[in-house]
Design goal:
The protein has one domain: 3-Layer(aba) Sandwich (Rossmann fold), CATH 3.40.50. The chain is built from seven helices and seven strands, in the order βαβαβαβαβαβααβ. The chain has helices at about 15-25, 35-45, 55-70, 95-120, 145-165, 190-200, 210-220, and strands spanning about 5-10, 30-35, 50, 75-80, 125-130, 170-175, 230-235. Helix 1 (about 15-25) crosses helix 7, helix 3 runs parallel beside helix 4 (about 95-120) and helix 4 packs parallel to helix 5 (about 145-165).
């Protein structure tokens, strides 16, 4: 039986990497974005494409109403929607703070709720993977808003995993450090800024979308059938170790 995955934020670097890898493995895909032109440019006429803003209840309802109209039942969710809002707490505007919360936390809550509702309605088991951040695991200057949002995502993962384990529904998250994706382009805009960013990590490096996609796909797979309620770090040791300084 062909497996079906829903990928939100599917035109970003991470979403596209997951889509390419799952397609190569024979999955059917449902891909979403707020921008129809971006979806068409990235995927052509492939896959079921849905234009919606999943940071709102109405947007998520549109996604799952469309899925139902096409008689699809996704049993895997890779939620890749998010943004990076940096700035000291006392200087961040309400608009920027709410945008950070909506993109990172509210979108995760609404999308996961609808995905689990769909599984329960059809009596299906399934798995979801959300995206947290190393900034949720260790204090990082100027990351107050994104840290608050991603800490919320991690709490959501643990709570939902506990609530729905009896239904055979698994919920996990990944927590990357900085990655070389369009979302971080401003932070990695020159050779110097890339070098400085890489030096912040014990394993001095910058992550890639493919690395994180591989981990997320494993968490969605049957190989991770006994894994739920976990947050997997992929941050070159940033959140857990301090290297010996010579």
């Amino acid at each position: 039986m062909t497996k079906i995955a829903l990928i939100t934020g599917a035109t970003g670097g991470l979403g596209l990497s997951i889509a390419n890898k799952l397609e190569a493995s024979g999955w059917r895909l449902i891909v979403t974005s707020r921008n129809a032109e971006n979806l068409a440019n990235v995927y052509g006429k492939k896959h079921l494409q849905i234009v919606a803003d999943c940071s709102t209840v109405a947007g998520v309802k549109h996604i799952f109403d469309t899925i139902k109209q096409h008689d699809e039942i996704p049993t895997a969710l890779a939620h890749c929607v998010g943004n990076i809002r940096l700035g000291a707490l006392h200087r961040m505007s309400e608009v920027d703070f709410m945008d950070c919360m909506q993109a990172n936390l509210f979108s995760a809550f609404h999308t996961l709720a609808a995905f689990i509702g769909s599984l329960k309605e059809t009596g299906s088991v399934g798995a979801a993977v959300l995206v947290s951040s190393a900034a949720a695991r260790i204090g990082t200057p100027n990351h107050e808003a994104i840290s608050a949002a991603k800490c919320g995502v991690e709490g959501l993962v643990r709570g939902a995993a506990a609530t729905y384990a009896a239904n055979g529904i698994r919920v996990n998250a990944v927590a990357p450090g900085i990655m070389d994706t369009p979302a971080a382009a401003k932070l990695l805009s020159s050779a110097l800024t890339r070098e400085v960013a890489a030096r912040q990590y014990p394993l001095a490096s910058i992550g890639t979308a493919d690395e994180l996609a591989n981990l997320m796909i494993w968490l969605l797979s049957d190989e991770a059938a006994r894994v739920t309620g976990q947050v997997w770090s992929l941050d070159a040791g940033f959140s857990t170790i301090r290297p010996y300084v010579k």
